[in-house]
């Protein structure tokens, strides 16, 4: 079995079961920052636990901006894998994060919107919030290469 | 005040003292400790930071690639740190935005380095840029990051003194006293 077949099967299983554990095990960094995911109908809700190690500013305390970026990039990648028939992990080309509010040391959520899906490139928008969706702590957009090896 | 021209950065100390300051700075940032981030060199316009490889930094197990989040954190920290070094006195400088281009994959097993530089310091905003590499001359990612200045008056001067304390001379004076 080619690795890509393996991956397709893993995504198909996650899509049908709604259980993310096996897929997330393929991304050790997701465990490092305490990322989990939950399918809610057509939407996927990503969550990052307020791990002490995710702190950037210990005085406030506040989440590290780089961790927020890592969380949003992972959410965008997983969202694409679940939405599209991709046969490999989409490769992030660029990522832009706007920091709107300081991230407190509490659970952080993210949802994604697929702005455009081309044959080779996709544009994904991510919003991360803590209190409610209307007051995001950060927004991001990223471009992904979908089929780099063909 | 708001119409005053952009300030040039001024070298306040010899580079060794900036480096000591940056080592102290990242030692108190939990995520940087979790990544075992190191300050390699620093002055008033540049810093060089590194993150050694670890298994939990992998983003793609099949291809054995380091996750982009590690690169984001290294860039945000290094660019934010050089912003602090460029100021006449320590201020809190939250990130306004971070824009990253991923030029080539970051492979497992190798240390990541990030060189961050000051582009411009203005009374309100600090403009920086950074490049991440594993081998010199082969950039993995490049970034632009802008930071807000919250004002030196918001921070006790003791914090600046503690951050950039001159350990050599304080040890020397302690030695002279004894």
Structure description:
The complex is a heterodimer of chains A (150) and B (178). In chain A, 29% of the residues lie in helices and 37% in strands. Chain A is an alpha+beta fold. Chain A has one domain (3-145): Thiol Ester Dehydrase, Chain A, CATH 3.10.129. In chain A, the strands form 2 sheets. Chain A has a 6-stranded antiparallel beta sheet with strand order 1-2-6-7-8-5. A two-stranded antiparallel ribbon of chain A has the order 3-4. The mean pLDDT of chain A is 91. With 178 residues, chain B is α+β, with helices and mostly antiparallel strands. Chain B has a single domain (15-177), classed as Hotdog Thioesterase (Thiol Ester Dehydrase, Chain A), CATH 3.10.129.10. Chain B has 5 helices and 8 strands, in the order ααββββαββββαα. Chain B has a 6-stranded antiparallel beta sheet. In chain B, a hairpin with a 3-residue loop joins β1 (38-42) and β2 (46-51). Chain B is globular, with a radius of gyration of 17 Å. The N and C termini of chain B lie far apart (47 Å). Chains A and B meet through α3, β3, α4 and β5 of A and α2, β3, α3 and β5 of B.
Name its key features.
heterodimer; A: 150 residues; alpha+beta; Thiol Ester Dehydrase, Chain A; six-stranded antiparallel sheet; two-stranded antiparallel sheet; 4 helices; 37% strand; B: 178 residues; 5 helices; 31% strand; globular; disordered N terminus
Task: Give the SSE map.
The complex is a heterodimer of chains A (150) and B (178).
Chain A: H1 3-17, H2 21-25, H3 28-32, E1 35-40, E2 43-48, E3 55-57, E4 62-63, H4 65-83, E5 91-99, E6 108-117, E7 121-129, E8 136-145
Antiparallel strand pairs in A: 1-2, 2-6, 3-4, 5-8, 6-7, 7-8
Chain B: H1 15-27, H2 30-34, E1 38-42, E2 46-51, E3 58-60, E4 65-66, H3 68-86, E5 95-102, E6 112-121, E7 125-135, E8 138-148, H4 157-163, H5 167-177
């Amino acid at each position: 079995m080619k690795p890509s077949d393996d991956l397709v099967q893993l995504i198909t299983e996650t899509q049908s079961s709604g259980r993310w554990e096996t897929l997330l095990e393929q991304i050790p960094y997701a465990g490092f920052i305490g990322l989990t995911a939950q399918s809610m109908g057509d939407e996927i809700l990503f969550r990052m636990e307020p791990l002490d190690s995710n702190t950037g500013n210990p005085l406030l305390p506040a989440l590290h901006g780089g961790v927020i970026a890592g969380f949003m990039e992972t959410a965008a990648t997983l969202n694409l894998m679940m939405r599209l028939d991709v046969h490999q992990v989409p490769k992030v080309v660029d990522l832009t994060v706007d920091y709107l509010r300081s991230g407190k040391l509490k659970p952080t959520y993210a949802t994604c919107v697929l702005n455009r899906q081309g044959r080779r490139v996709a544009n994904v928008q991510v919003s991360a919030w803590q209190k409610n969706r209307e007051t995001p702590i950060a927004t991001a957009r990223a471009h992904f290469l979908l089929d780099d090896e063909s | 005040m708001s119409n005053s021209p952009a300030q040039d950065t001024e070298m306040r100390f010899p580079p060794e003292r900036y480096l000591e300051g940056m080592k102290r700075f990242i030692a108190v940032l939990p995520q940087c400790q979790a990544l075992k981030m190191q300050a390699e060199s620093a002055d008033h316009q540049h810093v060089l930071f590194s993150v050694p490889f670890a298994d939990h930094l992998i983003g793609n197990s099949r291809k054995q690639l380091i996750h982009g989040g590690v690169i984001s954190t290294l860039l945000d920290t290094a660019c934010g740190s050089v912003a602090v070094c460029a100021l006449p006195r320590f201020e809190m400088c939250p990130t306004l935005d971070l824009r990253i281009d991923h030029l080539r994959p970051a492979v497992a097993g190798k240390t990541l380095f990030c060189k961050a530089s000051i582009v411009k310091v203005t009374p309100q905003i600090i403009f920086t840029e950074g490049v991440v590499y594993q081998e010199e001359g082969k950039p993995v990612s490049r970034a632009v990051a802008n930071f807000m200045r919250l004002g030196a008056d918001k921070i006790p001067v003791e914090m600046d003194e503690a951050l950039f304390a001159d350990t050599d001379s304080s040890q020397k004076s302690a030695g002279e006293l004894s």
